[in-house]
């Protein structure tokens, strides 16, 4: 495959203007002499060159967003902001094929997964279009006579939004939609691996009628420049999804001006299969939450713990299903591929290191085990390892790739102890037919999200976020809006004075 792969795909877009390489600063598409290369993981060729913003660009974007925000909030209601969001949602849905194509090209995920992500991304906008009208305060019985105490929720102000490459659309909308619903403005630093999807979404937001200065997009590969978002005093909130290391650094920097911060960081999700589970259901759950996005999600099952007397049967059922996966370019194989490439060479190297480390310590390769040799793309074979133990790197470290390592355990207590033996706490899954066990284990897992008899836990209405070193704050759900608001109390005193 060559450059013609993406040239053909871009030429086939219904609206070629959605493929944008410029930054969006001060309400204008802004070309830059400085650019960075964006690669296409399916072929490892350059997909295009995008504006590389510097610190001054980000400062300008922040100042412009700060100017626009108070007018936006003053001149709109929850209902009118909801209507703008609804319009944005509809435009995205009408362009789902185009955005799915762009997303698949830059991220590598298969076209059907990419289009599915666009629908998932749009669902956050629809959700917050409705939440915008439900931004309730409370009245509080006052302890002082003649006094009424009430609260109102106000937008926090300018929000710095920093997102990852694994969900180029959904991680933008999960943050930007509640921010706009609350009455905030945003300055987005999209991932340098996948900036095009964000730029396309921004174009549609402006078409939907949002004041352009409310949404500023500063693509950059300059990490130092991007820290401006965490230090600039005009930025009042940082929302970041990405690695724990970068999250801690941003939190430290943001503390200089005491910004509100929410962090959705790394995971090391346990996936537990008890011997009373429906094993077919468990395999279905593992297929979804291990191999979605080729294993590159923060909520992917990283460690599969199976009760000893169910391990053989579960493993052979899993091998059968995983063998049927079709690896291929995101837009190739007549849309038959079910597993795209990984994002880059470093990602392939990491999966190989986890496999090699486990094998050197006694694990057995049941399926796959190496990178694909017959392609220039960043492909790694869907892999199953058995005989994995807690001494191996994969027990501690998030693989972020299509590797399913199977550990065995004996008792429920062992399973919970193994599951919690990590500094991370984003998601956890388990399968059991026993209702008492379902409640017991769900409470004992030290994670922010639990899937019981399912591998699917993500939805606009579900609170998304972790505990421990997986971060803090909730996205989506009825809690997502308040992450972009402050609660102000208003005390009305001496109500009977002068009567
Ligand atoms: C993530 O990997 O950070 C997001 C996954 C999801 O929304 O399901």
UniProtKB/TrEMBL annotation:
GO terms for molecular function: succinate-semialdehyde dehydrogenase (NAD+) activity. It comes from the Eukaryota. InterPro entries: Ald_DH/histidinol_DH (IPR016161), Ald_DH_C (IPR016163), Ald_DH_CS_CYS (IPR016160), Ald_DH_CS_GLU (IPR029510), Ald_DH_N (IPR016162), Aldehyde_DH_dom (IPR015590), Aldehyde_DH_Superfamily (IPR050740). Residues 29-490 form the Aldehyde dehydrogenase domain. It is an enzyme of class 1 (oxidoreductase). Its EC number is 1.2.1.16, 1.2.1.24. Pathway: Amino-acid degradation; 4-aminobutanoate degradation. The active site is at residue 264. It catalyses: succinate semialdehyde + NADP(+) + H2O = succinate + NADPH + 2 H(+); succinate semialdehyde + NAD(+) + H2O = succinate + NADH + 2 H(+). GO terms for biological process: gamma-aminobutyric acid catabolic process. SUPFAM superfamilies: ALDH-like (SSF53720). PROSITE patterns: ALDEHYDE_DEHYDR_CYS, ALDEHYDE_DEHYDR_GLU. Belongs to the aldehyde dehydrogenase family. This is Succinate-semialdehyde dehydrogenase, mitochondrial.
